[in-house]
Amino acid sequence: MSQEENKPAPEKIEHKKERPRSSFSARFSLLISLAALAVSGYLGYELLYKQQDLLTSDVPGSTRQLRTDVEKLKESSNTSQYDINRLKEDQKTLTEAMRQTSQHLGKSRVDWVMAETEQLMIIANQRLQLAGDLDTAATALEIADQRLRDLADPDLTPVRKILAKEIQSLKSAERADITGIALRLSSLSDSISSLPLSLEFQQTIQSKAAPAEEKTKASEATPPVAPQPRPGFFAELWADIMGVISIRTNVESYKPLLPPEKQYYLRENLRLLILGAQQAALRADHETYRNNLKLAKKWAQEYFDTRSQAMAQLISEIDALSKANLASAKPQISESLSALRAVSRKKAGL
To answer: How buried is residue 184: exposed, middle or buried, by Cβ count under 10 Å (0-12/13-18/19+)?
Structure first.
């Protein structure tokens, strides 16, 4: 027991010796912690203060910069919006211009085709009425119908219906055989060289030739007449005037201008009358055509032998050709032109 009592005593002594050391360490650690906390607080305060100053000093500049940027963005946005609006207006203007141009071009094409068709109809009427050219008139109307067909306009259907009737009437109209008539006249002209002169005309030539020869011989045997005194100025003037003026007393008895005793000129005069009738036929000149044939028949009967076979054929052919019709039938083709003009006035609002 004495040993047990002696053992704890040293432990207590040891505790008493270690307690001051632990207390000092704790206090020192506390001081270090407080110092570190103080330093941290100071540094934190300094940092916070500087940041606050920094923020305080940068906010106005940043605000101004932001405001400037915002203003620039607004201006840019306004400019962009203005450009967009202007582009929209330009697009509307361009669209309207394109629409008007399209309408104008379409209208101009229709008007141009209508005007061309009207001119074709006018040409057809002129060729038919002035020249009697049925074929050209029909061709012009067919082209006009093609132009109207290309338009595909229902308002033009009545006009095309009239055109169809007029084209058919032109194609079925009776045509004069001008080429055949011209060829028959040419053959008639070639046959003139074989026509014999009439016996009566030859006897007349001989009876007129004998007194002329006797008169010539008598004039040669007559002594020259003494010169007469020169007449006055007024007498010469009157003689000159009377020499210029000639009065025909027998208009009905038409004689060839050239000497009748020359057969060549007689035949050529007759041939010229036949060829004149041929030219008149080609021009569809009815009056000149018939007058030339009438005069050619009279001339042939007066100077050529009517009892010969060649002369009989010539007279018969002249009579047949005189009855030939030079004019082709002229159907009425102006109705389509009037109908087209009525449609044009209706479309124009007149």
So the answer is: middle
Residue 195: which of 257, 289, 274, 279 has the closest Cα? 274
At 237, list the tokens. 């003037």
Report all structural domains of the chain as residue ranges with CATH numbers, in order of start.
Answer: 91-175+333-348 (1.20.120), 176-208+255-327 (no CATH)
Rounded Cα distance between 258 and 209, Å, is: 15
Helix (H) or strand (E) holding 99: helix 8-131
* pLDDT (0 to 100) of residue 95: 81
User: How far separated are the first and last CA of the chain, in Å rounded?
Assistant: 154
pLDDT for 3 equals: 45
DSSP letter (8 states) at residue 350:
-
Contact yes or no for 127/137 (Cβ under 8 A): yes
The whole-number average pLDDT for the span 172-183 is: 87
Most confident of 11-25, 92-106, 317-331: 317-331
Q: How confident is the model at residue 207 (pLDDT cuts 50, 70, 90)?
A: low
Distances (CA, A) of 13 to 5, 17, 25: 14, 6, 20
CA distance 339 to 121: 11
Say yes or no to pLDDT of 240 above 80.
Answer: no
How far is residue 156's CA from residue 341's CA, in Å, rounded to a whole number? 11
Answer yes or no: are the C-beta atoms of 300 and 197 closer than 8 Å.
no
Query: For all residues of the chain together, what is the average pLDDT?
Result: 76
Q: Compute the distance between CA of residue 123 and CA of residue 138 in angstroms, rounded to an integer.
A: 10
Q: Is 326 in contact with 293 (CB distance < 8 Å)? A: no
Amino acid at 68: T
User: What angle (nearest 5°) sits at the alpha carbon of residue 176, between those of residues 174 and 178?
Assistant: 160
Q: What's the pLDDT tens digit per position in 122-153?
A: 999 999 888 788 899 999 999 999 999 998 88
